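Thread: Modeling a multi-component assembly for a lab meeting

Hi all, long-time lurker, first post. My supervisor asked me to bring a structural picture of a complex we are working on to next week's group meeting, and I have zero experience with this. I have the sequence lines for every component (572 residues in total). Could someone generate the structure of the whole assembly? Inputs are pasted exactly as I received them:
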Amino acid sequence: MSAVTFEEARSPDVMASPASEPLAIPAQVARPMPKARPTPWLQTGRGRAFSAALGRILRVSLPPIIGMGLFVLLWQLVSVSSGAAGLPGPAKTWEAARALFADPFYDNGPNDMGIGWNILNSLYRVVTGFGLAAMVGIPLGFMIGRFAFLSGMLAPIISLLRPVSPLAWLPIGLYVFKETEPASLWVIFISSIWPIILNTAAGVARVPQDYLNVARVLALSEWKVFTKILFPSVLPHMMTGIRLSIGVAWLVIVAAEMLTGGSGLGFWVWDEWNNLNVEHILIAIFIVGSVGLLLEQGLLWLAKRFEYA
Amino acid sequence: MHPYLQIENVSMVFDTKNGKFHALRDINLMLDQGDFIALIGHSGCGKSTLLNLVAGLIEPSSGVLLLNDREIRGPGPDRAMVFQNHSLLPWMTCYGNVHLAVERVFGAKETRKQLKARTEAALELVHLSHAMHKYPHEISGGMKQRVGIARALAMQPKLLLMDEPFGALDALTRASLQDELMRIVQETSTTTLMVTHDVDEAVLLADRIVMLTNGPAATIGEVLSIDLPRPRDRLALAEDVRYHRLRHAVLEFLYQKQLRKAA
Ligand SMILES: Nc1ncnc2c1ncn2[C@@H]1O[C@H](COP(=O)(O)OP(=O)(O)OP(=O)(O)O)[C@@H](O)[C@H]1O
Ligand SMILES: [Mg+2]
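Re: Modeling a multi-component assembly
Sure thing. I ran the full set together rather than chain by chain. Output:
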């Protein structure tokens, strides 16, 4: 279910270089040795540990560095070949980014805010919309997983609504709420609720029979079954659902804000497009990517804390 | 007065992907209060299935199980179970696992302090006081099994069901826990149904050894009464001719009568 990250895809063995093998002893060594010299630092115990550590760090960090370098190079090539009015190059974009982040929190009224405000606005909507989705989705997932009847009842509805493109929900939100802010929250809510429901329900259905047997032999109350057995057992699945949900929410918010306007990263991208400020559009893409990455990594870290060995 | 536990004409047929599987047939067994029954038979013959039936975790395909003249309709804390795979909850410490059961059985009547004392006493009994606050994944297989035993004993059940409780233990720990079990069961006159693969254990502990034939459609092949006087002492028994005769009878059933059928 989770996307393969670069971390997982790279196996350290592939990078092991044959250079670490001992070199063949050259013939000159056969000559009588001059008087003993102190061993060079790199061949002492600590020196070797140092060079081994250095090698490890290089092996881990070199591929991403090379990858990023090639990416920037490619970008430069494209921008040069597209001419003066074409795509801005890395250097120009970097300058624009420095100017932009020099004052991230200015506020000149509704349609002209610092980049920091735009990021925070988008995050706020994602967190609120997702929070609502979790409040509804987690209990619903538990009930669907626990009661076959409910599962049978809701399965066709979920299957029908889940593949709907998130933005298709926007007009309904606008129609019902008559305002853009609740409408974009509604879009986040409805598009991020499915992974939570489905993963929670799958987790409940997959609680090991052994644990349920313990509950049955003890004849625990439904509340105790929930707090002592179901919830802890489902928690890792729930965390997966939450992570996927927030991922979806972050994907959707930029698109939704493009349409609803006012504030947020999506609005900003669209605004800069109207200003034909392509540097800023490129910067926006990097920001959206970085924030998404941070969210994902943070939640992965959180999920690890809830796993039982 | 009727026997405490009555198992009458019980059969168990499982629905599997490859059709029906006839696990047990025509099981008839009566237990009086305080009886200690050892259940022995080759792997896969249906011992755990029989225990699950008595626990109420599964329902028989035909026949009835009566406990105190009432039909068994589901599980309950009056029948504690030591599971074959110990079934500890991984998100609770050893203490937490035992305490969950103690709280369920005695929580309504006793103070927190008393519940704590019961939990600690149960863990002390299986020599696990030192590992009380460890999680199941931090302790060995034998230790997990002992927590499972502590959990069941702490409930002070009327009927104690044990599925190979001492299987993963070393000989010394096993002997010591067998002695403890004998003492507790006798003092509290708990009715006990215990699955074991160990012939010595069965003869040492049981009033009767119930021997199952090989599956599929296993049934009770023989019932051997162990009329050795109690309290039993393992060292004294080692010299006892009756002990060896009984032991031999079980071995004969397992390795001659049943092995030939299996072949
Ligand atoms: N839920 C089930 N569904 C289908 N078949 C089952 C089920 N439970 C047990 N069986 C089958 O019933 C038979 C008896 O199983 P059981 O677990 O009772 O054996 P056992 O005597 O306890 O074996 P062991 O000594 O290895 O624990 C086996 O052949 C098993 O495959
Ligand atoms: Mg078994």
